[in-house]
Design brief:
- The mean pLDDT is 93.
- This protein has two helices and seven strands; from the N terminus they run E-H-E-E-H-E-E-E-E.
- The strands form two sheets. Strands 2-1-7-4-5 form a five-stranded mixed sheet. Strands 3-6 form a two-stranded antiparallel sheet.
- It is 18% helix and 35% strand.
- The radius of gyration is 12 Å and the shape is globular.
- By secondary structure, the protein is of the alpha+beta class.
- It has a single domain, classed as Beta-grasp domain (Ubiquitin-like (UB roll), Roll), CATH 3.10.20.30.
- The longest helix is centred in the middle third of the chain and has 8 residues.
């Protein structure tokens, strides 16, 4: 399975890249994609995720060819 992973804002700086491609076998959730892409980094609390530009839960499934994006929590004031 081939998954494109993208990182935005402070997450891009934290992981040291804006995107990458993962080649993985088996069924995955969005949280599994983070762990596979960043085995030495815990996902920050309140991280938002999207699959193919739609916001999803971290427990949602990912399929071959999907694009998974991770965003830091949005704050405003």
């Amino acid at each position: 399975m081939s998954i494109k992973v993208r990182y935005f804002a402070s997450l891009k700086e934290s992981v040291g890249r804006s995107e990458q491609r993962l080649e993985i076998t088996g069924l995955l959730t969005v949280a599994d994609v983070w762990r596979a892409a960043n085995p030495d980094k815990a996902m920050p609390d309140n991280t938002l995720a999207a699959v193919n530009m739609d916001y999803v839960a971290l427990t949602d499934a990912v399929e071959d060819g999907d694009e998974v994006a991770f965003f830091p929590p949005v704050t405003g004031g």
